[in-house]
Amino acid sequence: MERFLSSWFVSSVALALAALLLGSRMTIGEEGESLLNRVIALAVVGLVFTFVHQLIGTILKTISLPFIILTLGVLLVIINAVLLLLTEAITNGFGIEFAVAGFGWAILAAVVISVCQSILSAFVD
C-alpha cells in the first residue's frame, strides 16, 4: 500500500511538471478553476495514471518485451504515450479535465514524465 501511495504521489508531481513544461499542449483541470479544484483534478489524474500504468502498462510491457529490446527501448516510450492517452480518455469519462494535444505531444509528455518519475523516485523511496 505504501508503495502505491508513493507511486501515486510521484506520478502526480511528474504529471504536474510535464503540464507546466508543455503549457497549453497538456492541461490538467480547467482554466478558471480554483487552486483546490485543480489540485483535486491533478490528484485524480495521478491516481488514474498510476492504476493504468501499474495494471495495463505492466501487461503491455511484459507482452512486448522482445520488441522493446529489439527497438532498444523506443517502443517503451510509445507504450507510455499510449498509456497517457488512455488516462486522458478515462479521466475525461469521469468529467475531469485532462488533455494532451496529440500523439506527438503525448510522446514528449511521456519522456518528461518518465524522467521526472525517475528523479523523484530516488528521493521518495
From TrEMBL:
Its name, as the record gives it, is Phage holin family protein
Cited PANTHER family = SLR0284 PROTEIN
Q: What is the lineage of its organism?
A: Bacteria, Bacillati, Actinomycetota, Actinomycetes, Propionibacteriales
Which domain of life does this protein belong to? Bacteria
Instruction: Write down the InterPro entries for this protein, in alphabetical order.
Output: Phage_holin_4_2
So where does this one cross the membrane?
Answer: 39-60, 67-86, 98-124
What are the alphabetically sorted keywords of the record? Membrane, Transmembrane, Transmembrane helix
